[in-house]
Structures are given as structure tokens and as C-alpha cells.
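Morning run. Coffee first, then this:
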Amino acid sequence: MALADAHCHIDFPEFDADRAAVLARCRALGIERILVPGVSRATWPRLLATCAGEAMLRPALGLHPVFLEEHEETDTGALERELAAHPEVVAVGEIGLDFQVRGADREAQMSLCEAQLAIARDADLPVILHVRKAHEEMLGLLRRIRPPGGIAHAFNGSLQQAARYRELGFRLGFGGTLTFDNARHIHELARHLPLEDIVLETDAPDMSPAAHRGERNSPEYLPEILAALAAVREEDAEMLAAATTANLDAVMGWS
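And here it is:
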């Protein structure tokens, strides 16, 4: 049963002690591809080094909205140069808008996100979006700038917003929240969305599934998220594994 993790920070220091062992267990579970998003310019070298030589790891580079204070004006130019220098990079991300953060500088987030969407469009690369309390603003940016699709990570918007993301070439990421009994809105989304919209992700080391609450999350827990999706949709897990993996391959342009 082939699986793919559409969002995992395997480069983070939380995995320094046992990264190779984690990836070996992932391979044994049938996890074939892991998309690794970048969050800041300072961490890009570590991310690229982690992915080098690991065929299952696919790097992305971006400037995360939550770390706005760490970013400098020159970082978007550096992003363009890094994308040109590293053809192995498969996407621009993790980028986006996070208006849930207390005191968020919305104007600065919008400006940074707009610049990165334009870079992705010009480089013909999909984007990995982080969006909280800002789906309408994000959809407006996407309609105007038109990057070549991507993934709305940890999607928690409405079914109507999901349809608008779909029209713009996006798949929607579902992760550990799906495993919690009280996550009714996420369950409703996962139940009613067209299967072709859905990709699976862990967001490790964060967002642990219910069985691992309070622990470090890991990409090896992806089968637990698959099982939760199968239960919510009342569909065969093996079929869902094949479909969600194909969805990720399609939006990323992987053959």
C-alpha cells in the first residue's frame, strides 16, 4: 500500500537523533514520498542537506507567515536565487496567511505572501499554503496572481471555500486532527469533499494523532491518519491510500 506525506518537517532538530531510523520505518510502512516544506531562509540549507541523497524526501522552500519577524526584505530575492540554483526543489512553501496569531501584521503577511506567490507563478512551481482565519484573503490573492496550484495545508475552511480552492488547482491537506473524535468540522469536510481534493499529511513534528497526543509527531503515523479517513468516509483504506497518493503526485507534477 503506497502512501505519501504531503507535509512533514523531517528536517527539524526534533528528528536529529533518529531521523534515519524514522525514515526506515516509513519505508517499511509503504510511505514512498515525503514533501518537506521550508519555513525561513536560515533553515533552507539544513532542509536541502536533509533531503539530499534521500529519494523519498522532496524539498520545498518558503517563508512562513508565523515567523514574519525572522524574515528580511532580501529573503524573497534569495528565494528566487535558491530556486534557480536547486532544481530539485519541487514547490514554494510553506507560505501563507495566519491571522489567528495575536497581533499579526496582516499587511506585512499579505505583502510577503503575494511576493512568494508571484515567484511560484514565474517559476511554474506549485505552492504549499498555511492559512488560518484568512481563507477569503488567500483566495483573493490566488485568483489575482494565479500560481500553478498546490496544497492548502491543514485545511479547515468551508466546503464552499474548498470548491474555490479546487477551481484554482489546489488539493486540501488532512492530518492528525482527523483522528480526534471531537473534530466534527474536519470530519464533515473529509466525508463530503470529493476524494480527488484530498491529500494526507502529518505536519510532523507537530499535530500528533490522538494516539500520540503530547508526543513528537512522526511521518510513520501517516497510516493512522489514513485509517481515520477510511472510518470517516466508510471507504476502503487501500483505495484511499492509492487515491490520495495519486492526488499529491498530480498536483506536484510527479510521474
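The beta strands are 3-5, 31-36, 57-61, 91-98, 127-132, 150-153, 170-174, 198-200. Good start to the day.
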